[in-house]
Amino acid sequence: METKIPQEWNKFYLKDVTFINLMRRRIYNVLIVANPYDAFMLEDDGRVEEKIYNEYTELGLRYPPTFTQVSTTEEAAKVLETTNVDLVICMPGNADNDAFSVARSIKADFPDIHCVVLTPFSHGITRRMQDEDLSIFDYVFCWLGNTNLILSIIKLIEDKMNLEHDIREGGVQMILLVEDSIRFYSSILPNLYNFLLVQSKSFSKEALNRHSATMRMRGRPKVVLARTYEEAITLYNRYKDNTLGVISDARFPLTPVANPSPKAEDKDPEAGLKLLRTIRAQDEYVPLILESAETENRTKAEAEGFRYVDKNSKTMNRDLRRLMEEHMGFGDFIFRDPKTHEEVARVGTLKELQDNIFKIPNDSMLYHVSRNHMSRWLCARAIFPVSAFLKNVTWHKLQDVDAHRQIIFDAIVQYRHMKNIGVVAVFDRMKFDRYAHFARIGEGSLGGKGRGLAFLDNVIKLHPEFNRYENVKVQIPKTLVLCTDLFDEFMEKNNLYSIALSDASDDEILRHFLRAQLPDSLIADFFTFFEATRSPIAIRSSSLLEDSHYQPFAGIYSTYMIPYLNDRYAMLRMLASAIKGVYASVYYRDSKAYMTATSNVIDQEKMAVILQEVVGKEYGDHYYPNMSGVLRSLNYYPIGDETAEEGIASLALGLGKYIVDGGQTLRVSPYHPDQVLQMSEMEIALRETQTQFYALDLKHVDEDFSVDDGFNILKLKVKEADKDGSLRYIASTFDPYDQVIRDGLYDGGRKIISFAGVLQQGIIP
């Protein structure tokens, strides 16, 4: 039975997120006011600068903060007057005063600078803090010598600075931590950030190349610390649609207090439960975790369906991490049996989810869909467009498991397609499938043609309106580029330069190249590409000098085509020979002569190779498209009301090679599709329209690769296409009795390639 999906979820468009616009505001300069002992400990034992530098490099953030360390208030004042400081960290027991006094004097002179106090906890300090108003500082932390805390402080302040913008710009998620105990949040935050940064490193593997991976890590969830009920509920109400989860203490003040370490009588013992109840009433799905040192709170929390973590437990951090993994969508997605809670399947990436979504048992699928788990998992992995879309497709609105499967599958496919367009991905056998699009193997250049295709792909990405027509997809064919470094390696390892640069004949050069060896590591990659493409493949040259703006190199090098074969080893042999044939064509006599004529040096030329699916259809033992074309942006010979700027198209039946080789084509201005000069009079139409076309010979699968790259291209008469039934919308018929040309196919008369159905009757596709 076919699944019926409501129209609103059947047709949708996902908007991409630009990670480069996230985390724009940063802490660049940090001033640490510390006594000599703590300064030494930070610098030498903790190597805080090195740790933070390493973490920033891993995150792909360009500017890790620089640290300046001073010991006295006077030194601090001098630095603050001459340097643009973003954050001051005041540490305990300085030479001239304690941390609080130093922080207070800095805030008096520089009220807008972020200021944090680190202090060890002794009875004296605790007593003193209870009598002081510390609300002028951003945070007070408990300092036990853990340098990871410094990193957490910087991240916490950066998260707060970027929260509003990043949620609005990209749909980034927030984890709300509600905790008023300085000791406790000082120990939980480093663990929380460590967990999040490891997670963001693992989900960045969803990206298509290294740059995208580092950018993607900017989409990790933000941690926001609230210290009272009022602050927590205000934050939640403001960002409820982007809350990934809430971790709350049980006992804390309801309203703000001047002191960050309030007395017991200021706290409400049920504040945490009240907060979680209020949130649950607004969102039935958001994960809520209560942590408490009072054991009776476990029963209360679990009775209301909240998760519970015991603060006194030695495994507290591990317990919290496990709950976050399971309920906030971190780690692998584990499909569970709703009755036994046993694992029935596990997926680690978006592609794995796409591949397995139809294999998950119905009851497990229902369990996860009805609790919004899928959307949350995608959120935690910064796949915001799909997550936001699926969040609206709730079980209340659509109670059909198979429809949910199909919607999830379609959304993932559309997202992967959107992410692929306009990006040159690094080829990965685990990710490249029929929904992948453009990838490269190697680190070198894509060559001129490769760059041109990548640019076109990017133009298509920037203009989604290209795809506004029903059943028409504007895209470049599936493409894999072997970069120029593979060419260098091939030439070096096989010692080919001596024969290549000699005066040997083209045939001899080709013979040497065909005997040479390509790297074995490519075999599995090529098999993956065959499987994903399942069509004949064009092996095209893409040299450094080709398609450059200032000198034409088109048509100088070889382009081979090979048929799709079920015997993948036979196809591999043909592909390898074709690649070597393209490499060899750099050194053919015509290429060398052209190099000399254009004042280029042959050893500067490097060859990338493009493997691209051949667009078309199989007809018996040959393969060709109904329609191919060459577009020129300038029409040098405008006719009638055509203008030069409107450009001109040359259209033909069969492979586009026929047009490039100078065959007879139909010349038409896309702005004036009904004004075709060649069809204006019968004599001209009979004399000047296409009579032959090119097709790929699917029978020709032996390995006699020759210098002529068209050795397996057939030149056929138009009547062969008529037998194939491929002329339906592109031909007109000459009626010899009435001496007229009629649009469409009729028995008896000669077929004329007029593209009348497409140009005049608007039959598209």
Mean pLDDT: 84
Strand content: 15-25%
Radius of gyration: 34 Å
From the N-terminal CA to the C-terminal CA, the straight-line distance is 29 Å
Q: For the report, how would you describe the main beta sheet? A: 6 strands, mixed
Low-confidence stretches: none
Number of strands: 28
Count of alpha and pi helical runs: 29
Structural class: alpha/beta
Structure notes:
This protein has 765 residues and is α/β, with parallel strands linked by helices. Helices cover 39% and strands 17% of the residues. The protein contains 29 helices and 28 strands. The strands form seven sheets. A six-stranded mixed beta sheet has the order 13-14-15-18-16-17. Strands 2-1-3-4-5 form a five-stranded parallel beta sheet, with helices on both faces. A five-stranded parallel beta sheet has the order 7-6-8-9-10, sandwiched between helices. Helix 10 packs parallel to helix 11 (271-282). The longest helix is centred in the first third of the chain and has 23 residues, at 148-170. The chain is elongated. The two termini are 29 Å apart. The mean pLDDT is 84.
